[in-house]
């Protein structure tokens, strides 16, 4: 493992954006694991700038998102489908929609959806790069500390601290979904290279590279 102190969130975001861009440029069939949230906003802004500047062909790039809230439709402004469209896929509209994979948080049977998404991950194989944020208590995605390392895609009951932390994106805390569908740690660890961002204090971010 390598840990980089890049001095600021913006510098770390640019570093990872460049790594994602290089992977797509040199491997047009690459598989990228993507994440959402405030830590990722600068990253996607930097990546979109690089993509638009160079008009990179991404038709064969496949993306796999980490998680989604249970109970939110893809069109809900706080869903991760909406976030990814807003931050990346509409800003650079050349990704092939059939190669974009995000869990469906509004499925009739969420356990079946988790199994279905896990099957997709297994069929597609190892991701070339996985990006992730590490929460204040060490959670990765919606996997809280203590989640088994052999866990696969599953439904998670959100902790009170996670609900409270995410309430800033909603009108009030009661509007925050109480569950999410998330890759498990076994899925996450399948990636060839992972970038874990850890905001240690305001605008200072450590980047863990595995």
TrEMBL record:
Domain of life, per lineage: Bacteria
Entries under Gene3D superfamilies matching the protein: 3.40.50.1360
Domain Glucosamine/galactosamine-6-phosphate isomerase intervals: 19-141
GO MF terms, alphabetically ordered: glucosamine-6-phosphate deaminase activity; identical protein binding
Keywords, in A-Z order: Carbohydrate metabolism, Hydrolase
Swiss-Prot/TrEMBL GO biological process terms: carbohydrate metabolic process; glucosamine catabolic process; N-acetylglucosamine catabolic process; N-acetylneuraminate catabolic process
The protein's Enzyme Commission number: 3.5.99.6
Lineage: Bacteria, Bacillati, Bacillota, Bacilli, Bacillales
Designated gene of the protein: nagB
The protein's name: Glucosamine-6-phosphate deaminase
Signal peptide: none
One GO location term (cellular component): cytoplasm
């Amino acid at each position: 493992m390598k840990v980089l102190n890049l001095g600021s969130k913006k510098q770390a975001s640019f570093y990872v954006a460049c790594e994602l861009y290089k992977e797509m440029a040199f491997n047009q069939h690459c598989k990228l694991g993507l994440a959402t949230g405030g830590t990722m906003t600068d990253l996607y802004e930097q990546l979109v700038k690089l993509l638009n500047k160079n008009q990179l062909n991404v038709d064969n790039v496949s993306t796999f998102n980490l998680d989604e809230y249970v109970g939110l439709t893809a069109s809900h402004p706080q869903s991760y489908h909406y976030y990814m469209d807003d931050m990346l896929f509409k800003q650079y509209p050349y990704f092939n929609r059939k190669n974009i994979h995000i869990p469906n948080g509004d499925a009739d049977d969420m356990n079946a959806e988790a199994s279905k998404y896990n099957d997709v991950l297994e069929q597609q194989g190892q991701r070339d790069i996985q990006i992730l944020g590490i929460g204040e208590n060490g959670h990765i995605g919606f996997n809280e500390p203590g989640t088994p390392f052999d866990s696969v895609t599953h439904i998670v009951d959100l902790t009170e601290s996670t609900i409270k932390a995410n309430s800033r994106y909603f009108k009030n805390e009661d509007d925050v979904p109480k569950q999410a569908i998330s890759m498990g740690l076994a899925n996450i660890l399948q990636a060839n290279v992972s970038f874990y961002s850890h905001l240690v204090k305001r605008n200072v971010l450590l980047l863990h590279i595995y």
